[in-house]
Specification:
Radius of gyration: 26 Å
Distance between the termini: 72 Å
Strand content: under 5%
Largest sheet: none
Number of helices: 3
Length: about 120
Amino acid sequence: MNVITSLYSRTKGVLRGGVATLASLPAVALAALPQQENITEGTDGNLLDTFRNVGSEGFSIAFIVVTAFAILAYIGALIWAFNESRKKGEWGLFGMVAGLGVVMIVVVIWLANYGDPIMQST
């Protein structure tokens, strides 16, 4: 118990100084927020064009979700392959999953970048 009390008494001043420093940091930051951009899509009052533009943004979000799911599936497969390889001592499966996963992620990101402008133009 004496060790804990002496440790607390020695670090009490450092903790107070650290809290004071952290409390004063927001006063130092002088950055301004960026200006909001004006809406350029569907501002002409045509309801159908507005829905089409919102739909194309939905496709962009869907592509991002698919890419995120592919990355998470890759991470899960990589963890599974690592555990299996560690148990069996055979690292060929882990190397195959790692290599094919990297290729899969590159293809998914390429397809999302390739498909997004196509969906934007329709």
